[in-house]
């Protein structure tokens, strides 16, 4: 039932917003030159873990250029207060309910609340989001930055297509044209910004699981829909990992909220619904191996070398890109080749 209602909602949103949007104009550039940015609204009405974590490079970029600027974000669901806990420039989190038509009054009142503040700038993050374009249209601001593809930037930056990076490159281009020159060469990595106490607790939790001082390889065998690899595939990979590294490394499976395992709980396991603790546990491992999913982006956001496996989604758009991480197209990579990649990355990270 809810699937049908949501599909109707998406159809109506696309119809309402198909003509909303536009490129940055000379008027926008001159207006930015004449004001001091004190409050920005970031629009990304999506509830997925990975999509919200991919806002963190933009948050860091704004913080670097405008350290006193307050940022509000318009999102969906309840993850944002957890994920952005340690971003001091973040002020208001405007949250759409996860199931709009189950909480219709809350859904409508949240849209209305977009009109409560006047913003110096509104940034719509995702070009394909109808809700994002509508929210940007409704928000009070003289400068509205709709997402769009800039061919010149694509020609200059081969990673421009990445979901987390595209909006940062666009934002920098706008700032440069307005006289704010950026000396940053690389787009910031995703960052959960774990504090020292969280890292210490993560190390303690991992030690209790492994009962060992050996370094740990973490695996995550779940993913949604067709992104999830079969039990036979994962069991072959786990067997080869155990044969290769069982003596010198602990192998721990991080379990999803569904508490299921594609290797039938053969390995030591870690289960938690606390995303920050989960991130801290993963951060204390040596490498993280997973299919493309939200937890892959969580691992990347805590700085652990992450091997993200892609079978149907676009690795150029979603790949983990923190130091030591790599996207693997499994249609072109055997289990043996995957183990060789793990070995290469472990040796590189130890060097």
From TrEMBL:
CDD domains registered for this protein in UniProt: GT9_LPS_heptosyltransferase
InterPro entries: Glyco_trans_9, LPS_LOS_Heptosyltrfase
Biological process per Gene Ontology, one example term: lipopolysaccharide core region biosynthetic process
One GO molecular-function entry: ADP-heptose-lipopolysaccharide heptosyltransferase activity
Pfam families per record: Glyco_transf_9 (PF01075)
GO CC, alphabetical: cytosol
Keyword set, alphabetical order: Glycosyltransferase, Transferase
Stored Gene3D superfamilies: Glycogen Phosphorylase B
Name assigned to this protein: ADP-heptose:LPS heptosyltransferase
Species annotation: Dysgonomonas macrotermitis
Classification of source organism: Bacteria, Pseudomonadati, Bacteroidota, Bacteroidia, Bacteroidales
